Amino acid sequence: MTEKAPWVTFRPELKVLDCTVRDGGLVNNSKFSDEFVRAVYDSCVQAGIDYMEIGYLNSPRLFPASDYGPWRRCDEEDLRRVVGDHDSAATGLKLAVMADAGKSDWKTQILPASESVLDVVRVACYVHQIPEAVDMIQFAHEQGYETAVNLMAISIVQEIEIEQALEVFATTPASTVNIVDSFGALYREQVDHLVKMYMAALEGTGKHVGIHAHNNQQLAYANTIEAIILGANRADASMAGIGRGAGNCAMELLLGFLRNPKFKLRPVLQLLQDHMLQLREEIEWGPSVPYNITGQFNRHPREAIQFRAGETPDDYVKFYDQTVSDI
Questions:
Q1: What would the pLDDT profile of 140-150 be if each residue is shown by its tens digit?
Q2: Statement to judge: residues 274 and 294 lie in one domain
Q3: Residues contacting residue 189 through CB under 8 Å, at least 6 positions apart
């Protein structure tokens, strides 16, 4: 039994990011209605959430309006149509976007911060894309944005590569470096190791460690609060856990755990009642046996997503045999 119980108090520097529209957009090609996005925005403001990731800032060439909703590109006109002249100082909420290395026309898409309602650019990359990610972080910083970086699919990256990545990110203007369990494959002990590694590498830089967990093995919430207890000061979550495949850490669980009185659970529950229940009837997300299997085998969930969209989505044995045979 631990001699301390850090979860009964709170750290003022711990901040929460809502990724409902961004990660949830991977379920429906970012085709959320303006009404829904505004409802999430209002809920985040009322709940005292620190950041709302309103979508991707990715290339219209790769993600055309004919196939993807506006939240895959986040043009300024679309943003202002929904959030008006958003002011983070007045609302207490910072608006963020994610720009993927290799998928964003970032040199033209990232406007000067003075011309945008956005406050934060989070750069996402795989380990082989780190050089471009560093350029993206620097460019967004020079444009006046707070920046962060997500090194994706961390469960399949070699430790020596993680160490080198952290050494590189420590020299960038990124304020946060996030541990991203893209495959939902990590267990508590691995989260412990990674949080300690990230914190040690970033010590003295003023940067924060963050956690973005996926729920393939239904461990997203547990791994998120474990990271927080160990000192991670940034945590991602989404309403009803919506996100690609098995989804993310559920915001309603995370806010129920945190003790900072600035966070209010009731607005989140209202959003679940008014919008998420209906959305669940239209699109599928959340843990299921195929996602459990990909998580256990540390595989990308795209295989389970494709299987769930097929003719026999509940033939778990078939999916298991197919997965094992591919190893």
A1: 999 999 999 99
A2: no
A3: none
